């Protein structure tokens, strides 16, 4: 049994401060085509990307008018999952919707 009057001291080392960098962010892009319906694009944006209807409609119109629209900006793993999910849903509904991802430009 140890003597309660004797205290052990513990030495602790302070670690050098580590700089934590924010992960690189990736854009999920929707590309315009002549076959995927506007309603389907809005549905994808609402369902998979959790956009409110008005925002989903605005993004869809941007895709329709300019040929490209940003569905969202995420970390790489999330962007990859969303891209894969959107492609799979488009394929299941027999639409050729092209969904890609690209890194956000460095600031």
Describe the structure.
By secondary structure, the protein is α+β, with helices and mostly antiparallel strands. It has one domain (25-103): Ribosomal Protein L30, Chain: A (2-Layer Sandwich), CATH 3.30.1390.10. 38% of the residues lie in helices and 20% in strands. The chain is built from 3 helices and 3 strands. It has helices at residues 38-47, 53-66, 76-92, and strands at 25-31, 68-75, 98-103. The chain has a 3-stranded antiparallel sheet. The longest helix is centred in the C-terminal third of the chain and has 17 residues, at 76-92. The chain is elongated and about 80 Å long. It starts with 24 loop residues before the first strand and ends with a strand.
CATH topology: Ribosomal Protein L30, Chain: A
- N-to-C span: 62 Å
Question: Sheet with the most strands?
Answer: 3 strands, antiparallel
Taking pLDDT < 50 over at least 5 consecutive residues as the criterion, the unreliable ranges are: none
Q: Approximately how much beta-strand content do the residues carry?
A: 15-25%
**Mean pLDDT value:** 91
CATH architecture: 2-Layer Sandwich
Name of the top-level CATH class: Alpha Beta
Annotated CATH homologous superfamily = Ribosomal protein L7/L12, C-terminal domain/Adaptor protein ClpS
Give the ordered list of helices and strands: EHHEHE
Helix content: 25-40%
Whole-number total of structural domains: 1
Structural class: alpha+beta
Rg, Å, rounded? 24 Å
Count, helices? 3
Shape: elongated
- Strand order across the biggest sheet? 2-1-3
The tally of beta strands, per DSSP, is 3
């Amino acid at each position: 049994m140890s003597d309660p009057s004797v205290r052990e001291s513990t030495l602790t080392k302070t670690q050098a401060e580590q700089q934590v960098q924010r992960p690189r962010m990736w854009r999920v892009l929707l590309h315009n085509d002549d076959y995927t319906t506007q309603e389907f694009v809005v549905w994808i944006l609402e369902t998979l990307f959790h956009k409110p209807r008005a925002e989903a409609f605005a993004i869809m119109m941007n895709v329709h008018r300019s040929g490209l629209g940003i569905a969202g900006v995420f970390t790489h793993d999330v962007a990859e999952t969303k891209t894969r999910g959107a492609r799979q849903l488009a394929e299941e509904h027999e639409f050729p919707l092209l969904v890609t991802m690209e890194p956000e430009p460095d600031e």
